[in-house]
Amino acid sequence: MAGTKALLTLENFINGKFVPCNSYIDSYDPSTGDVYCRVPNSGKEEIDAAVEAARAAFPGWSARSPQERSQVLHRLADLLEQSLEELAQAESRDQGKTITLARTMDIPRSVQNFRFFASSILHHTSECTQMDHMGCLHYTVRAPVGIAGLISPWNLPLYLLTWKVAPAIAAGNTVIAKPSELTSVTAWMMCKLLERAGVPPGVVNIVFGTGPRVGEALVSHPEVPLISFTGSQPTAERITQLSAPHCKKLSLELGGKNPAIIFEDANLEECIPTTVKSSFANQGEICLCTSRIFVQKSIYSEFLEKFVEATRMWKVGIPSDPSASMGALISKAHLEKVRSYIKKAQMEGAQILCGEGVDTLHLPHRNQAGYFMLPTVITDIKDESCCMKEEIFGPVTCVVPFDSEEEVIQRANSVKYGLAATVWSSNVGRIHRVAKKLQSGLVWTNCWLIRELNLPFGGMKSSGVGREGAKDSYEFFTEIKTITIKH
Ligand SMILES: NC(=O)c1ccc[n+]([C@@H]2O[C@H](COP(=O)([O-])OP(=O)(O)OC[C@H]3O[C@@H](n4cnc5c(N)ncnc54)[C@H](O)[C@@H]3O)[C@@H](O)[C@H]2O)c1
Ligand SMILES: N/C(=C\C=C\C=O)C(=O)O
Fold first, then answer.
1. For residue 456, which ligand has an atom nearest its CA?
2. What mean pLDDT is reported for the chain?
3. Residues 344 and 381: beta-carbon distance below 8 Å
4. Residue 3: its pLDDT value, please?
5. Where is the Aldehyde dehydrogenase domain (predicted)?
6. CB 103 within 8 A of CB 88
7. Considering only CA atoms, which residue is closest to atom 33 of ligand 1?
């Protein structure tokens, strides 16, 4: 345990109050490797207190009209926006991402999440059917489920936490959220704004700590009927097991092994910079990042040369450097895991064209122990290699050639995941055909990560269960009832 002097110390937020914890976990600054923060190491006791608060707050909050709840969400969005710079600095320091990404993506999107659900909650309708021959009218009503358990990962901390909190409370639930123990700071900062936004005590409770301890206490609690989880597939398996005895409602947003398919008629001027970004944005730590690039044979050499050149321009720097394209990875353990994949690829005879082990990374003296690595491009690798099958979740991408449309679809689909794919071609017919055949919850063609929040977001196969979005999140965070009136 590090000395506690000058360390930022977080507290749980339960029933509208900050509450200290009996024990704490060290949290590291990824750019230096130094401990800089203490995160509550909560457990069952804290979950019990949060459940009590959420239970007490539920009748009042769920009885408010959608318009009243919407106003509260709008106020929270405004307050987050007023703190944008402070939140961006904190997110960048806590996660290792560049300040530019935190300023332009993470925090603006967190604001947008509240604004979006504040608006969408006002526009849902229900179904009604007539059965005149029986003298009956049938209709549906929806009601909030109750206490929602929300578990989020470390890669887009406030972005993904608010993507769950906003629809859950908009629909009238009360929530207990557990952010990743590796990146808890911005969630704690948001708690400071809740009272001013008009969120009543107990509506949003945030309990910090590790997955096995506080995460499992939340998932196992019999009074939490619903769990919305974003994270890895092995954790999802555990959550599914723990939820099964209670028949909980589950939403699981998991990992990916996302292909980019580049046909010979692709516009390479747009495709190359976008594919560098889709491979290495946020250090490759986005579930939607490209990690398998299939390039049609006739343009393979040209693509590879230009792609490697563009990757070498992708600057790795300290997170606070506004000119950096990539910061530090989340942890020492994760850095080692990512590096181990590169070693395995080398042992299998693959070629590392740039990055780790090939180029030299220059860092300021005080960042030498930070968790940095260069964006790395692997080629001459078999589809069966673990680098082509498993989620690496780091700045590593593999480039391989293909001959035909049919072949590339089969190869792209040959992994257990099915989250996001990109397809590059100027042939509209082909784009529609290929997009339809890919086993992927999301397909971006001639672009990447353009989000339309109204539409379903999520993966198929081992990438998850359920979808998030305006209608999908509303349906998940409510229970439907069919009522029949005989007249
Ligand atoms: N599909 C998506 O939308 C999406 C988005 C972001 C990240 N991800 C995935 O998340 C993973 C990276 O995030 P991670 O390493 O934080 O994932 P993780 O599964 O290790 O942790 C995610 C969250 O679950 C908690 N947790 C861990 N063990 C738990 C347990 N036994 N019970 C309850 N909670 C537990 C963690 O503390 C954390 O809050 C990658 O696989 C990535 O693809 C998916
Ligand atoms: N859930 C979303 C993104 C997930 C990214 C994973 O790392 C979103 O954009 O809504």
1. 2
2. 97
3. no
4. 53
5. 24-483
6. yes
7. 215
Mean pLDDT of the 458-487 span: 98
Q: Is the dihedral of CA 198, 147, 107, 123 positive or negative?
A: negative
Q: What CATH number has the domain spanning 8-255+463-486?
A: 3.40.605.10
Residue 41: strand, helix, or coil: coil
Query: Given this chain, do its domains 8-255+463-486 and 258-445 carry the same CATH topology?
Result: no
- Its CATH architecture, for the domain 258-445, is 3-Layer(aba) Sandwich (3.40)
Closest CA to 143 of 393, 380, 475, 485: 475
Q: Are strands 460-461 and 417-418 parallel, antiparallel or unpaired?
A: antiparallel
Each domain of the chain, given as residue ranges in start order, spans 8-255+463-486, 258-445
Residue 169 CA, ligand 1 centroid: distance in Å: 22
Kindly give the distance from the C-alpha atom of residue 179 to the centroid of ligand 1, in angstroms, as a whole number.
Answer: 9
First and final C-alpha spacing in the chain: 70
Concerning whether 237 is annotated as a catalytic residue, the answer is no
Token digits for 263? 């046909």
Q: Is 243 in the pocket of ligand 1 (CB under 6 A)?
A: no
The answer on pLDDT for 477 being more than 60 is yes
